[in-house]
Design brief:
homodimer, alpha+beta, 3-stranded mixed beta sheet, two-stranded antiparallel ribbon, 5 strands, globular, DNA-binding
Chain lengths: ~130, ~130
Amino acid sequence: MGRRTQRYSKQREAVFNAVKSTDSHPSAEDVYESVRREIPNISLGTVYRNLSRLADSGKISTLELPDEVTRYDGNTSDHLHGICQECGRVVDVELSVHQNLHDYLSGISNFHVSRYSLTLHGLCRDCLN
Amino acid sequence: MGRRTQRYSKQREAVFNAVKSTDSHPSAEDVYESVRREIPNISLGTVYRNLSRLADSGKISTLELPDEVTRYDGNTSDHLHGICQECGRVVDVELSVHQNLHDYLSGISNFHVSRYSLTLHGLCRDCLN
DNA sequence: CTATTTGCAAACGCTTTGCCTGATT
DNA sequence: AATCAGGCAAAGCGTTTGCAAATAG
């Protein structure tokens, strides 16, 4: 066990920047496409490896979306996501709701909730018009 | 388009029964193992095909669990699921909470919620002891 | 100099599909 | 007899991994 030391690599930096610089919650493939413009011969395997390491070390986070390709988020704060049924985008959701939900869920009698995963489906602001 | 007519087959009946007769939320592989005791030469492809058809026609339902193999549920009523961090089981969760949640979620300002997918993580009753 | 990281390609796990034979209506 | 469903095996898709060469410290 124990994490081994991490060395700098321009590939990891580029992967990190690609995730950090957008709020589109890119998939590994999306990140690959984006980073390739800067480092044309980067391999998809390297992108996957770096996404995992960055997520392990808490610098980015992984999105738990049902029936979806894994997506990554540069915003590591605790928040919710909505998937727009119209345009397919994954958007950040304002979370006053989120804050009370944990208490709300402790009302459950046959299961002890330590965390939950909530994904909303509906219409984003753009598609609501 | 348009659904084609469905014919009876003993394989589909067995797949249906396997899902209906348990509350363990079996995966396709689980169903395969189970049905094989009755129909030893059934193929895994047939199990998948029938699970899809049964779900399409609403006779069983598909579980949207993040980062999990797809599981199936013979209980088609709207309810929540908890994944036990100790034993890995997926259990049905009593849902008084669930009923109010939709209203609760309409408070969100930047996303119009039409449905949501909520999975709980924690401890089931057995593992809480 | 040594350990880590890369690129590449092969392997993986789960699920779907094509093709031809067999079963249902 | 006309379709639909099954068995089998191959393919598909997203992701992981083994390996030898390159690179950071």
